[in-house]
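Dear colleagues,

As part of the handover before I leave the project, I'm documenting each prediction I ran so the next person doesn't have to rerun anything. This entry is a single chain, and its sequence is reproduced below.
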Amino acid sequence: MADGFNQARAMRVAEIINDYRTLLLHISQQHVEPSQEEYWEDGFVVLRESLASAQTLMAANYQHCPVTGQGNVETEKAELQRVILDGSARRFQAHKIYLRAAAAKRWAMTRSSILRGSQATPQHVAALKSATVTLHQDLARFTDQHVVADLRAADLRAGHWVDDDPSLDVIRRWVGGQ
């Protein structure tokens, strides 16, 4: 039975895809070039992993399911819900990647501020260790539940229609099946 929300679903698809695109843009802006000595420092490793994860996510094509209902509102509803799920899963993954990359970028900026262009010396050890501890605390905070709650709060602040947004369990199953 048609519920009359297909227009809202179509708008939701546009909102989710726009968020996803924006997140990918922000992730690409987190790049930092470390020196050879710094290459394997924790934050730079996280940045490289984040950029690689974003590339993998972008390379994953949407598996379109052809609509054969030819104007059937129930078929349209099902397809829109599928696109909302796929887009939500992609946005979820991109947001998690972005949070990790942004934390690593903050770590890199803190490291740069501590070192001020010089090599690390014993005088820097405590401050550098503190920056790395903060990085790991931030990374530990970015659980799947945190990411979903963060996205949901932003959607609600923006006044988006979220009635068909998938739960974390549904997103996890979708991501696992892709």
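The mean pLDDT is 93. The chain has one domain: 6-177.

All the best with the project,
I.
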